[in-house]
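Here is one chain, start to finish.
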Amino acid sequence: MARTAVPHAAIPLVALLAAAAAACGTQPDARPPAADTAAVAPPPPPSPAVISIQHERDFELTGDSTSESVRVIGTGNSYDSLDVRLEIRARDGTVLYVDRWSSALYFVYEPRSQFSDAEVLRRVRAHLQRLVHDSSYFDPRAGGQRRPIFQIDRDQVAYSVAERDWRDAHEVADTTELQPDAHSEIHARNASAERVAGLVSELNAMPVFTYFAGGEAHNTIAWSPSERRFFTIRACC
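Its structure:
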């Protein structure tokens, strides 16, 4: 019996591909391409909100009939730990006086843990606002004002004189915060009694500025026209 030839077209395509692969000694790779598994870094957390409180008020403090600017700046991430900066500037922008403290000092004698955040906010804002209130300022030359009930502390003036002399000797600006070890050297200095007496007389006739920096820090300062500096004339609890 004669054999019937099978036409090439009848051979399945799959069989042809398998035969070709076998001839090359390889098998077709039916796996899908590998996915990109590189780790994606999560976005950085948002920065905490920065609190900024500013108050500014003009007072005539140097006796030259030109007002100086008293500026209060409180910055930080929490109302109970703000960095508070008090500065007095002349009209030309020159910084004449600087003091700094933390708003945490406002809660030294108050139960911070018992206050809500809203109450902390209210108290700190009130303290900072009070720094530029009318009650912070007294000018003995202006009529109709009642003089604050205190006397200039001669010992405090003597310390201020010693501090100024120490700063001059070490070339440390009045507006630069002192390191803790500087205070012992300042205490060891003896201010001239004659110089202190002259300053007390001069400062007694000058406008005064009083501010509360928390805890027991009630400071009163006055400008000396002769030495062109502010001196602390009272620091009291």
